[in-house]
Each structure stands twice: as structure tokens, then as C-alpha cells.
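Sanity check record (used in CI):
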Amino acid sequence: MNKLEQPPVIPPHQSGVSPEPGIASVERRAFGLPGVPAVLLWLVLAGVTLWLLLSEQFVVGVLAGILTFFGLLGFFIVQPNQASLLTLFGRYVGTERRNGFYWTNPFTVRKRISLRIRNFNSERLKVNDQMGNPIEIAAVIVWRVVDTARAVFDVEDYIAFVAIQAETGLRHLASQYPYDDYVDGSMSLRGNPDEVAEALVRELGTRLRHAGVEILEARLSHLAYSPEIAGAMLQRQQASAIIAARTQIVQGAVGMVQMALQQLSDQRIVELDEERKAQMVSNLLVVLTSERGTQPIVNAGSLY
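Expected output for SPFH domain-containing protein:
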């Protein structure tokens, strides 16, 4: 019995099926010699070239001169908090982060990348919070590059990528929380600035890890209702404040009335029936909870 023949394996680029996405770039250390010893070797090579030319050995001298010239192109300097990313004929060969003077393959292309901490102040965005209220929000983001390979090769422009993803992350964060805390125990943008800042750092860290960027700090720099509803929301806040104040005043007044009745009863200053107690409670509550000073009416006659 004949065995079934296995179909030939067709490479992805020939089968018409798109290959899997490429693996994210990973930074690695580049090859680099200390610059001072390399300069000494280059000077020796330059001296040999000059001696060959003076000795009329022009062919060998010209070749040595060309080698000397290309050797000079291999020197480069890395400034503090900067890195030099090296590519050779379109292939990534490494990143030099050490500060100083170095020599490497003169045919490599070197790109400088700043590793310093940067600030990004977003524009004021008009978004809707969790309750659907239009608000204005902005943030200050502190970030730096931690993986030069990802920053250069995995995104088109990592600075623009940070700006766009910061705006997207800020919009998403604003939609997860209400502007103010209308329910006791719930988080809000205005009432929990530290928790909101931590959530924003996590949000941006997830979005920007593909660009080799680390978020050091992110905080809201502007937060306000949009002008079209600012007046109505101000009245709502004032009403909430008035209700909270009135609640506290009433609680205090009830406690004071209770204390007064208890002391009158314990010290037997005056004996009051239930009707007079109710009248006294009413008068004390009016005096204690009134916004204006009360004008008492003095009864010069009998108690009843």
C-alpha cells in the first residue's frame, strides 16, 4: 500500500500568508574600543602611511592612507545621559551607553539618543467623565527612554508616540472616574488626586512600553468643568455644601437640646410637662439653627 505523500512546506513569504509580527527589539551593548588606545594605534598607522609615501612605495602607501582615513571615521563620543545606537548596513549591532571617547567599526551608522528625563505638558482636552459630564483635563508627564532599540526601531517617532498615547490614555482615564464624589466612598478625579495619578502612571506605562519609554510621574495639571455646564455644576456644589452644613448644624442643635433637657431634669431646676418640653425644644431649635440672630419675646406673666 502506497503511503500518502506529505505536501511540501511552503515558506510564509511564498504562500501568500502574512508572517507573524516581528519580535520587539531588544537593546544590547555595542562593540567599542577605548578611544585613547585607538588614537595611538591610528597615529602609528598614519606614521607608517607617511613613511611609505616618502619611501616611494605609493601603492602600499595609498592603501595604508585609505585605511587610515576610514579608521578616523570610527571615533565617536558619548555624552552623559546619552546613548549612541549603531547600525551596520541596516542591521542593529548595539547601543553604547558608557560615557566617554570610543572607537568602533567605521562603517557603522551612529544615532544619538537622549536618556535624560523629559517633561510633557499635554493640551487641555475636553472629554466626558464617567457620569457623562463634559470636563476639561490636562496632565504633566515625566518620562525617559530606557530601551533605545525599541524607541528607534519599534515606533516611527517615539516623541510623537508619547504625545499621542498620553492624550489617549488621559481621555481613557477621565472616562473611568466622575469629576466629583457624589456617592460616599467612591473615587473621583477631584477628590482622589494621588490615586488618579497612580492610575494614570499605570495606564501610560502599559501604552508606552512598546516604545521603550518609562513613565516616572504623571499628575493632573488642570481639571475643571466645561464652560457650558460650569455654572450649573457650581450651583450643585454649593447646594451640596449647604446641605452638608445644615446637617451638621441640626445634629449639633439636637445634641445641645438633649443636653439642656437632661441637665434641667437632673438638677431639678424646673419641672416641665410634655407639652412645655415640646415648646422648649421647638424654641431652642429655632434659636440654634437660624441663620440670623433671633429676637426673643419675654413673657412677663405666668409661665402658662
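The chain has three domains: 22-114, 118-225, 239-287. If this sentence no longer matches the regenerated C-alpha cells, the check is flagged for review.
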